[in-house]
Every structure is written in C-alpha cells, then in structure tokens.
User: What shape does this take?
Amino acid sequence: MDRLSLRSNLEKYRTPFEEEASFINDFIDLTFDEKAFVRERLDGHFTGSAWIVNKTRTHALLTHHRKLDRWLQLGGHADGNENLLEVAMSEAMEESGLSSLRIVDSGIFDIDRHVIPQKGEVPEHFHYDVRFLIEAEINEPLVISEESMDLAWIPFDAIEDLTGTNSSILRMLEKTSKSEILL
Assistant: This one.
C-alpha cells in the first residue's frame, strides 16, 4: 500500500463513528504532501499501528508506552515508508517480539488523528495513525522493547478500565466486538 493506494483506500473508507469520519478528508489531504511520511514534518505525519488481537477475540495486546505513559496499541513512525501496513507489522514485531503475527485484512481497520505533546525540542504535533487488524498467538512469549514500560494481553472487558476514556482504543474495541471477520 503506497501513497496512491493509501489515498484510494482512504477515499473509499467509511465508518459509522462520527469522530473518525470527521478527519478522513484531512488524511486524504495529507497524502498529497511530499513529507507526509517523515517525522520531520512537524505539523503532523503518518504513523502505522497494529490492533493486535488473539484468535478468539477475547484479548488485545497493548503496550504501556514509555514516552506517553499510556496504554496503547503497538505502532510507530513511517520514517519514509509509504506502506503503512508494512510499518504496522514491523513495529508490532519490534515492540512485541511476536513471530505469530498474521494480517487479518490488509484494508484499513481504523484511523485516528491525535496530538502528541511536546518532548524536548520536538514541538506538539499530530499523528495521522492508520491502523490494521492483526492476529497473534496469545501464548507466545512477549519481549518488551525499550519503547515500552510493559506489554500485556488485556482482556476486552478490562481495556476501558486500563485506557480510560481513550476514544480511539474504545472504538477499535467496539469494531472488534462487532466485526464479522471469521475467527
């Protein structure tokens, strides 16, 4: 999925969630910017994330992000790679150590635009996060990367308590619960 196919997929992307629908056009517009896939674009840039679930759809793998001090899905900067599915898979492997990762659907699962606070000389900016649904074996050992304080399979019914009012996490959880994707 390069820049052109990302744009095409975003143009076709539909969601019943008003918040998510409200920024689809911003994502499409960003695909026209030559620097959209590099973190040096300080107004905001693309990132790729993996919403990792177990095969029976009872748990999601979350990381306690070291810099943000919040529980989140795994993912990261594109660093010039326009294939955000590759970015999501690479970040998921690096941040979890899992080898059983399997793409459930190569289409966009979710998108979210969120503010990243200023850190050192890097000013506050937006991440335009494109998320993909990934499956993994829940019993495979996890390896915590230096980007995380912790990494854990969280039961679906405990995610809201752990993540608070993070609307994008709760939206992905709801999408997974309502998903018609075969187990």
User: Anything to note?
Assistant: Residues 84-96 form the longest helix (13 residues). Residues 59 and 154 are 5 Å apart (CA to CA). Strands lie at 44-54, 59-65, 70-72, 74-77, 102-103, 110-116, 125-136, 148-155. The mean pLDDT is 93.
